[in-house]
Amino acid sequence: MTKDIREDIAWAQINQDVMKSLENPRKLYWVILFAALMVFSVGIGCEIYQYIEGMGVANMNNPHMWGLYIATFIFWIGMSHSGTLLSAILHLMHADWRKPIYRFAEAMTTFSLMTAGLFVAVHLGRVWQIYYALPYPSERWVWPNFQSPLLWDAMAIFTYLSSSVIFLYIGSIPDFAIARDNIHPGWRKKLYSILALGWEGTDRQWRNFRVTYLTVACFLIPLAVSVHSIVASDFAMSQQPGWHVTSFPPYFVAGALYSGCAAIITLFIILRYVFKFEEYMTLPILKKTVRLTFAIAMVWTYLNCIEFASVWYSHDQVAKDVLIQKATGPYAPFWWAMIFCGSVVPFVMMFKRFQTNIPVMFAVSLLLNLGMWLERWMIVAPTYSHGYYPWTWDHDQWPSLIQWGIVFGSFGWFTLLFMVFCKIVPSVSMYEVKEMVYHRSQATKKKQLGIEGAH
Amino acid sequence: MSVSNLLENWSKFRHTHPVEDKGHPDWEAYPSGLKTDIKWAMAIDLDACTGCNACSVACYAENNLPVVGKEKYAHGQEMHWMRIERYWGEENGEFKAEQGAQFLPMMCQHCEAAPCETVCPVGATNHTEDGLNSQIYNRCIGSRYCSANCPFKVRYFNWYNYPEQEESWPAPMHLQLNPDLTVRTKGVMEKCTFCKQRTYVARNNARNEEREVADGEVQTACQQACPTGAISFGNLHDPSSKVAKQWAQQGVDIIKEVQDKDKEREKMEHEGKEPEKMVRGYRILEELRPYPSVMYLERVREESAV
Amino acid sequence: MIENDFDRRDFLKVLGWGGTAVALSGCGYTSIEDGKETVTSYVTLPSYVVPGISNYFNSTCAQCEAGCNIMVRVREGRALKSEGNAASPINRGKMCGLGQAGIQAHYNPDRVQTPLLNGKAVSWDQALKEIEGKLNGVKGDEVAFITGTMSGHAQALLGNYMDALGSKNHFSYEAVSPAVARAANKKAYGVAMPRFRIDKAKVVVSFGADFLGAWVSPVYFSQAYAQFRKGNRPEGRGVLVQIEPKMTLTGANADRWLGIRPGTEGIFALGLINALGAAGVKVPADIAAAAKDYNPERVGTDTGVAFDQINKLAALLKERTPSLVLAGTAAEGYAYGSQNAMAIAMLNHVLGNVGKTVEAPASVPFPQLAPTVGSRSALTALNAGLAAGKYKVVFSYGANPVYSAPAAMKFKDNFGKAGFKVAFAQYLDETAKAADLVLPLDSAMEEWATVVPEYMPAPYEGHAENYAQVSLRQPVMEKLYPNKEGSGTRSVGDILLALLKQRKPEAYKGFDDFYAYLRSAVLEKKTVFGAAAKDDNDIFWNDTVGKGIVALNGVTAKLAGRASASELALPAPAAPDAAYPLRLIPSVSASMRDGRNANEPWLQESPDPLTTIVWDSWVEIHPKTAAKLGIVEGDIVDVSSKSGSIKAQAYLFPGIHPDAVSVPVGYGHEAMGRYANGTGANVFAMLDPVFDKETGELALNETAVKISKTGARVIIVKEEGPIGGSQAGRKKIAVKVSAGKVDLTKEV
């Protein structure tokens, strides 16, 4: 169990295994799809009610102006960082083991961004005027406020989303061609014909493909870092205690990578099980992912400590009060749960025997994600609850069922997108796995040759 | 509609730093070369304030504020632009009533360097040429970032569609609505405007008569109602106005860095002296440097008489 | 349909002439009536109505008895906002929240819109005929009329009507009134309501007089208070000491609030006299004799106030004269309330304040227009008559006794015993519900009236020393419910005039309506009202209505010598009843008062200044008492007396004596309107029927109660957050400074 992948898998076998995942959904698929649709409908229903009645039904108030929506928004944005990390960063670093798993991670990036985008709309009091936030030339020469981090946010997310869609698509072109060539005639064949853009696998095409892919990857990395730094700026650029923290951008980026990795582990395990990808999503790859996640968890914990320490030693009594209130006030259970999930649970990953233990890792990854969701909530809410002005402290602060319903619904939406994706796009990159197998076999051959030569 | 227009807008969008900001002399409509150099400001004497709530009710009457009812109040969704806060003296964690309570009317402080203005994504809240922090309801998309960044938490969001709700102004109560300003729909932010509808009338009158706005010509609704006259309001750039005199006398300046009060205190501290007689003007949270336009005068109490 | 049919006479009648401009839109009846609209072209508007420009009409506030002069802003025929009339010596352009809410009484959706006979709509003609029929063969003695405080020409008409009926049974009732103080003042100073010059005093010692909140004329006193607090006044900044068991708004503004044991105010006053004597102040012999047993130690034990504080207060009063001592509601609500008030009044004599800060008042030169001030003893008398079945026909106007009478008086049952009950009502409140015939009243924005305030302000801006005033109330807009086809509302003056016409058709046939009566009555006395005999009537009248205030040369009463202090006999504080260990103090808040304005939503939503609670009643409990009883904030507690009980949320309040609990009055209406009904609990109902021994006033604070938890708990709906009135150690939010530390003399 030391190899990331068996070097003796036949290429045709790869095609066959992966293409299988695109066809003939089982009953369970439809059940899950329906469940996701239902969950999403709950969210839609809540949103319609909120749209008609006003934001009040979410039980937000003065001072609790932002609730779970913004927290969940950051959560989904954070989630999106996994794909970029695996495809772009690890691609540049020539980490070969990423190859079987980067495709769905990239899809996750795109879909979580699409989910996050929903929260921007859900959160707005007048969502029907959302286009005011776009810098479009208008008759009245009115522009949005370029000073506002929220505007940067909108732009960064939009750029990031479009780039990641392009990245995902470009990376899939050779696979679409494989799909085109291997699928039964029908509408899907037509679809893949279009998506494959006439890919024939010529030398020139491969060369152009490599350059483009590399370029977009390089472009995407700063974007990924900036998008979460900008989300962090929403808070760090404000004046509120607990938000006005210089270390927020790296803290947010670390948190994002962290939650993204945790989500990859979750989906890794699910896909491996559902599509029987044991040959490709192997335990050694899981192990590497887990180790990477553990490393990021420690970075996140470290940044957390830095934040606490900088508040504690800053002599900024107001910020300190917020911190104390996080640990002791009405939010204390959630805050401590966050610390537990985010900084204590990952230590399970330290143990080798757990690193490849599927049930344990599945549970751990879910806990990590819960912790990261709580982290976002604990950034948003306590500052409202305990800001500069004591008179407004702690006013009725619990989100209503409507708010929970929309948050809940967003998971349905994400699942829905992902389910559809699984059946349309090969969730394992076939050509890259082939590459990987090829490299492996070459390496093995070389090794054998080397050994032989030594004799 | 071009890049140059965009850049121009960008530069014009915000004033220069308030330290350099010397009033707002570019109101074109003055034909005779009279300049309008208006900076509306307020002074509230906490010693005179009795906490009676008259100002708050007057604000409801003037500004079409909806009554939200018990349930929404319980959720903290009340809409009082002017709220009266009541504080107790504290000793060892217990409230002390021996010296009465302390009241504080709190509304939008119309900061010159307002934290809310910079963060609005669509520029719905910005500074007017007469020094008000204004909210453009039509432009607001309800991101509520302004309120998130307001240190005083004096911005109120329309959580519900009050104008169209039967319980807000059941007929014939809707006849009371002030036609000089709008009612606000769901999803927009609102707050104290320093009774903009009144200041505009005064300014227009002054413009038509080619003169400057006289002190006392315009009263805010709260000021007008206040039974003890604790609130004064006027043009801070008019040295003869009561507000300007009060600010000057108390050594308070819009720009905290240059205010006499602090200079005096620093000097005293430098010389190691305990100042004997202090002024009592201060602005709440001025250390955050939002440069609020409302000066409060400390409540005075005889400590040892009885 | 376009129609130009407004009648000039009607038009003028309704409009009157405004202060700055004049009149309002003549738009017939616009869109208020269901289904019918008479569209009137803007072209036919009077020239003084400019669309988009407001007109201001001077009038008089009807929200409480203070009678502030107001200026109502009217735009295109709609009254928008009440503002203070700057020329008024009473409120000087200012207004309280209660007064502001008057506009909501006018536009209230729960107003009665048509006469109701046994709950069914009838026409005015039928209603008036019904009264005439019921009065047929009824002797004068068998008719009773209960009203709130009344004054002016409506009061004169009422007098005439009662005379015409041959009845002397006019009961003037106020659920909350300074009736005991009036009696005590009469004995101590020779006048019921002297002028209290807070603005001239260096020290004000107030025994529960909430003059900034709900006592007598709060807006007037608030202005005086503002003067009193000015550091650059010749007398220097004044010091306010408030002595009361439950902190009122005035107490909250005091330099020192002394939470005294309920009912021991008189003892404290005598102790203070004793201490003053000891400090070398000359005390008249009879007073000294009355106070001689009240040494500080004993007073300290009895009142619960540390005796060194009594000595300190005496020293302060000795040093700073003139001072002013006031006796208010809290000191009077006892079986020996008159004695308390008397002892307190003696302090003014001892301190030499009489003539300096207690001045002789002026009153209007027409006794028939002077207010008939309300009291609770009137209700007792009426109730006795009703119980005995003495009255066949009972009228009620401006009072809600079914709501505000203690349950122990069984007023509702007794009221039912009267054969025919007529309620003049703006809302279908408890009394109107219990009546057979309900006559819908105009709002104060729709009626003509004259008002004479009970508390006459001190001269202001060049007035003569004997300044007195009559205030005018005029309709500022078209009636919301006009008199068409027998329905709609009418003013009390119009109703009384119609009733008088039934009795004396000859004498009143010249007056079409109350407006005509009022106008002719004023013009008849125009020389007294400040006009020259040769002045044109129309010009004088328009001018008078425009101003809203008629300044008169009043009659100055003389301050008479005081009664001897030898009658003073104060009982030692009663030992607490084991079964009912706590004293209930029904508190009167500035906005809710006795509950007649409970259906105005601004008042319900405007937080109580001290507790910041909205939309409900509450029970104020001292934190120590609460800890003893295991009560925490929000517990629903049962407060029960011998005569009844209520359930309300507990609020831990530091400004109350540990032996007392306090519940605000004015809440808990069963009938009135959508905002008042079911909001809170009615504390009037559970009061014990204990009366002041001298005046027969209901002793509001004599109810002993016990408190128990019901087990339920709520989150109190209030403005303050869970940390309450704490500033959480933040230094620069609401700042207080010691008087010695600031230089106030140079302030602007």
Task: Kindly describe this structure.
The complex is a heterotrimer of chains A (455), B (306) and C (748). With 455 residues, chain A is mostly helical. Chain A contains 16 helices and no strands. The longest helix of chain A is centred in the middle third of the chain and has 34 residues, at 149-182. Chain B is built from nine helices and 13 strands. Chain B has helices at 3-13, 54-63, 69-74, 115-119, 145-149, 196-208, 221-225, 242-249, 260-271, and strands at residues 40-45, 83-87, 89-91, 94-96, 102-106, 125-127, 133-135, 156-157, 189-190, 231-235, 281-282, 294-297, 299-301. In chain B, the strands form five sheets. Chain B has a four-stranded mixed sheet with strand order 10-1-12-11. A two-stranded antiparallel sheet of chain B has the order 2-5. Chain B starts with a helix and ends in a 5-residue tail after the last strand. The model of chain B is unreliable at 15-34 (pLDDT under 50). Chain C has 748 residues and is an alpha/beta fold. Helices cover 28% and strands 18% of the residues of chain C. Chain C has 24 helices and 28 strands. In chain C, the strands form seven sheets. In chain C, strands 5-4-17-16-15-6-7 form a seven-stranded mixed sheet, with helices on both faces. Chain C has a six-stranded mixed β-barrel with strand order 22-26-23-25-24-27. Chain C has a four-stranded parallel sheet with strand order 11-10-9-12. The longest helix of chain C has 14 residues, at 152-165. The chains are: A mainly alpha (455), B alpha+beta (306), C alpha/beta (748). Chains in contact: A-B, A-C, B-C.
